[in-house]
Amino acid sequence: MRRLRRAAMDTLKRSRKYGLLFLVWNAMGLFLFSQGLIQKIVTRDPTPWQHHLISWMVGVWVWFLFTPVVLWLGRRYRLERRRLARRIALHLCLSVLVAFVDLAAEAAVLRTLRVFPTIMTGYSSTFVFLLIIGFHQGILTYWVILAIQYAFGWYRGLEERRREALRLQLHSSELERKLVQAHLGALKMQLQPHFLFNTLNAITVLVRQQRGPQAEEMLARLSDLLRLVLEDVEAQEVPLSRELEYLELYLSIEQVRFQDRLHVKIVVEPECLDAAIPYMALQPIVENAIRHGIGRSSAAGSLVIRARRSGDDLLIEIGDDGPGLTGQGKPKRGIGLANTRARLEQLYGASAQLTLENAPEGGAVARMTLPYHFAAADAVAVPGSLVAGTLEAHAAHRPAGR
C-alpha cells in the first residue's frame, strides 16, 4: 500500500510538471502566433489566420514532445568543467540532429493538415520550407531548453547548499549549546564537592574538639541542605527566593560553628525575589566571606546580603566586617569564586560580573551584577516560608543566625 501511494504521488508530481510545461509551450505558441498575425495584416497575406495559428501551435506541441528528450540528454551528458569542450561539441551535434527530427515531424503533421497549400504542396517541399525558416531556430530552442535546465539545476543546488549550511549552522549551535551545558555542568559538579568537603572538614574539627552534639546538629542540617540542593541539580537558574532558601540552610550550618560570633542581615527588595540567579551562586561567595573575613577574626562578625534592582540589572552585594583583603588588595582566587565567575561568563557573557574589593567602612564586599529577568516557567517553586521569615526577622532589625 505504501509503495502504491508513493507511486501515485510520483505520478501526480510528473503530471503537474508536464502540465505546467504544456501550458508554457502553449503560451509561447500564442505569443509567436501574434507576431505572424501582425505580419499577415501588414503584408496583406490572403492566407487564412487559422493557418498561421495551426502552424505555430503544431511547432510548439512537437517541441513539447521533444523537451523530455532534450532534458534527458542534458542530464546524461552534463556540461562538466573537466570535459566542457567535448560536451559542448557533442550537444552541438545533438542540437542539429534534434532540430532535423523536429522539423521532419512538423512537416509530416502540417502536410496532413494541409495548411499553406500554395507553399506546402508536398512533404518534401514542406520539409525544405521548414528547414529554411526554422532550422536555426530549432538549434537555438535546443540550447535554450538546455540552459533553462542547468539554470534550475544550479538554483536547486544553491538552495540545497543553503539548506545544508543552515543545517550545519544549527548543528554547530546545538553542539555549542551542549558544550556550554557540559562546561556549566562540570563547574557545578566541581562546586558542589568543594562546598561539601569544606563542611565535612568543619564537622571533623568539631569531632576532634569533642563537640559531639554540635557535630551531630551540623550533619543533620547538612543533610537537609543536600536534600534541597539535589532537588534542583539539573537547573542552571533558580529564583532568588529559592537561592536564599539554600543560603539559609547553609548559614544554619555555619551558625553551629560560630554560634554567637556570626550575625547576618539580609535586605532584599520584594520585586527581586522572583528574579533569576544562577543555581548555588551565592553560597560560595558567602562561604568566602565567612572563611576569609569573619573566620579570621576572634571577635563577632557581621555579614550583610543585599539585593536590589537597578534598571535592567539585578545587583547583589555580600559584605563582611572582617580584616578585608590582604597583600596587594587583589581578590582571592578560590575555587568557589573562580567557578562562579566562569558560570556567569558562560550564562550571561559580558552582561554579568563579579567583583571583590575592600569596603570603605572596613571589611570586604563582593558585588554581583546580573541581567534582570524572571526564572523560567519550569524553574522550581519555593514555598517562601523560610525566606519570608528571614525578611520579617530583618525588618525587625535583629541578627539572623544560620
Outline the structure in words.
This protein has 402 residues and is α+β, with helices and mostly antiparallel strands. The protein folds into 2 domains: 2-172, no CATH class; 211-395, 2-Layer Sandwich (Heat Shock Protein 90), CATH 3.30.565. The chain is 65% helix and 11% strand. The chain has 9 helices and 7 strands, in the order αααααβαββαββαββα. It has helices at 2-43, 49-76, 84-113, 123-208, 212-231, 240-258, 282-292, 335-348, 385-395; strands at residues 237-239, 262-268, 276-278, 301-310, 313-320, 353-358, 364-371. A 5-stranded mixed β-sheet has the order 2-4-5-7-6. Strands 1-3 form a two-stranded antiparallel ribbon. Helix 2 (49-76) packs antiparallel against helix 3. It is rod-shaped, with a radius of gyration of 42 Å. Residues 378-402 have low confidence and may be disordered.
Write down the secondary-structure element order.
HHHHHEHEEHEEHEEH
Number of domains: 2
Query: Count of helical segments?
Result: 9
Gyration radius, in Å: 42 Å
User: Which architecture of the largest domain would the CATH scheme give at its second level?
Assistant: 2-Layer Sandwich
Summarize the structure.
This protein has 402 residues and is α+β, with helices and mostly antiparallel strands.
Labels describing this entry:
402 residues, alpha+beta, Heat Shock Protein 90, five-stranded mixed beta sheet, 9 helices, 7 strands, disordered C terminus
